[in-house]
Amino acid sequence: MKFTTSIHCMDGRIQEPIIKHLKDEYNTSYVDAITEAGPCKIIAEGSATKTIDSIIKRTNLSIDKHGSTLIAISGHHDCAGNPTSPKQHLQQIKKSVLFLKNTFPKIKVVGLWIDSRWQINKLSNP
User: Fold this and answer.
1) Which domains can be identified in the chain, with CATH numbers?
2) 106: DSSP letter
3) Which of 10, 14, 16, 29 has CA atoms 20 to 30 A from the CA of 75?
4) Confidence tier at 126 by pLDDT (50, 70, 90)
5) How far apart are CA 76 and CA 40, in angstroms?
6) Distant-in-sequence, close-in-space partners of 24: CB < 8 Å, separation ≥ 6
7) What tens digit of pLDDT does each residue of 40-72 get?
8) Rounded to 5, what percent of the chain is helix, strand, coil?
9) Partners of 4 in the beta sheet?
10) What radius of gyration, in Å, describes the C-alpha atoms of the chain?
11) In Å, how far are 30, 37, 52, 53 from 49, measured between CA atoms?
């Protein structure tokens, strides 16, 4: 069994595309989902420390108990929790990737953008 951790929005429209992408692209069996409204904004801004602590705690659980070997952080088009431009979303995702890489230095971290066609786009490393 191989686990991946996905930190993504609670929006139901992106759940299945993200899980399918992670299973197909990274040959993973299971995806532990950590959901918040606009998580890339929360992590990038760094002001909601209780929420960030909760995300870190849940990510550690996925890594420690399920052996997760990959963390994906994403943002998406038409996000109610983070109603901003795609350009701003991409910046937030990249900043979140850096934060997660620093927090979990032994785990691979990727950033994903779900566009207006609900397609998953992998971001280049920041």
Assistant:
1) 3-122 (3.40.1050.10)
2) T
3) 29
4) low
5) 10
6) none
7) 999 999 989 999 999 999 999 999 999 999 999
8) 45, 25, 30
9) 31
10) 13
11) 28, 15, 5, 6
